[in-house]
Design goal:
The protein has helices at residues 2-14, 83-91, 108-111, 114-117, 127-137, 213-226, 244-265, 270-274, 290-302, and strands at residues 45-48, 53-57, 63-67, 72-75, 98-102, 122-126, 152-154, 157-162, 165-170, 182-185, 190-192, 232-234, 307-312, 317-322, 328-334, 341-342. By secondary structure, the chain is α+β, with helices and mostly antiparallel strands.
């Protein structure tokens, strides 16, 4: 086994993976605590997806549990305060050691429980997840060991075999964020999409962390082509589904893009476009996030544009106007001194 792990480490390095150490080779790793049942565990629901894979609903992103011959691999960890409950749910399935965690992306409802799992396992994620998490630490001091940062990172694709299970984790560019990873278990015919898939839920488009709806659609199309019609699909949010849910999500972005283009041609302002509603998706939860999708698409199509300064001498104002749309972003009052501006 130690020889296989050494060989695996070499393969990962060749693939651009940066290993921070394997959990069972490090004496500093703590033994897994004895987790006692807690009343809070009522928030969890387990669903067996295949012989080796379970889906765990709780609070935040959906958790994947993969039970191999040699140990357990966990996909996403929700929040720190409920992570012990995730461990208890795993213990209801198996007593095998929890060896690895894979994060699908950087958001706190997917990486928040990492510190709990790092007591006895290693965390794997895309390099951008590491960088984004590190950004969150700025101004708060340097992170401490076990505070959630991934120990093993990769850039494009990670393939490995662990305990008889074949796993493929891959990043295809910007989507929900610039940190997204899809985790595919071809022999189990299961894929975990992370937040690239919201099942019948209006998606969260995180422009601050690199989201791009055009890239998101390309990512979804590539995954759709890679998996099978029979593949069980675990979304980041929502119920277990199948491959057709990816087509539905692609259709959502396409419909939203057409709506933005049509409204823009009709002379609608950015603010008016952001308030658009599509009856086709009225039944999806998360309706308050529609403007987030529309705003992201608007920016991708037309940009925020160069800003034109329009001086009105009679009003003694300067307006900041978006060139493509004519929208007034802000108007300020100019004081008697040209260098003084009163907002």
């Amino acid at each position: 086994m130690r020889y296989l792990l050494s060989l695996l480490s070499t393969v990962l390095l060749l693939m651009g993976v940066q290993p921070g150490g394997w959990a069972h080779e490090h004496p500093h790793r703590l033994a897994e605590p004895s987790w006692q049942h807690h009343q809070q565990d009522s928030i969890f629901t387990r669903v067996q997806v295949s012989d080796r894979v379970w889906l765990l609903y709780g609070r935040g992103g959906n958790v994947g549990i993969v039970v191999t011959d040699d140990g357990v691999l966990v996909i996403d960890t929700q929040f720190r305060n409920i992570a012990p409950g995730i461990v208890r749910q795993i213990r209801a399935i198996t007593d095998k050691p929890i060896r690895y965690v894979l994060n699908t992306h950087v958001h706190g409802d997917h990486v928040g429980g990492n510190p709990v799992f790092q007591q006895f396992s290693d965390v794997i994620a895309h390099q951008n997840t590491f960088e984004r998490m590190l950004e969150d630490w700025r101004g708060e001091g340097l992170p401490k060991r076990g505070d959630g940062l991934p120990q093993i990172t990769f850039q494009k694709e990670l393939r490995f075999y662990y305990g008889g299970v074949r796993l493929e984790a891959f990043h295809l560019g910007r989507g929900h964020t610039d940190t997204d990873v899809v985790i595919y278990l071809p022999d189990e015919d299961v894929v975990h999409m992370g937040d690239l898939l919201f099942n019948d839920i209006v998606p969260y488009v995180d422009k601050k962390r690199g989201a791009h709806t055009g890239g998101w659609v390309r990512f979804l199309r590539a995954v759709y082509a890679r998996i099978r019609p029979t593949t069980k699909v675990i979304p980041g949010h929502g119920k277990l589904t199948d491959r057709e849910a990816l087509r539905k999500m692609i259709g959502y972005f396409q419909d939203m893009r057409k709506a933005v283009e049509k409204a823009h041609v009709a002379g609608k302002s950015r603010e008016e476009i952001l308030s658009l509603k599509l009856d086709k998706y009225a039944g999806w939860s998360g309706q308050k996030r529609l403007g987030m999708t529309l705003g992201a698409i608007y920016t991708e199509l037309y940009g925020n544009g160069p800003t034109l300064l329009v001086v009105n001498k009679s009003e003694e104002t300067v307006a900041f106007v978006d060139v493509p749309t004519g929208d007034v972003r802000a108007k300020v009052k100019v004081g008697p001194n040209p260098h003084e501006i009163a907002v």
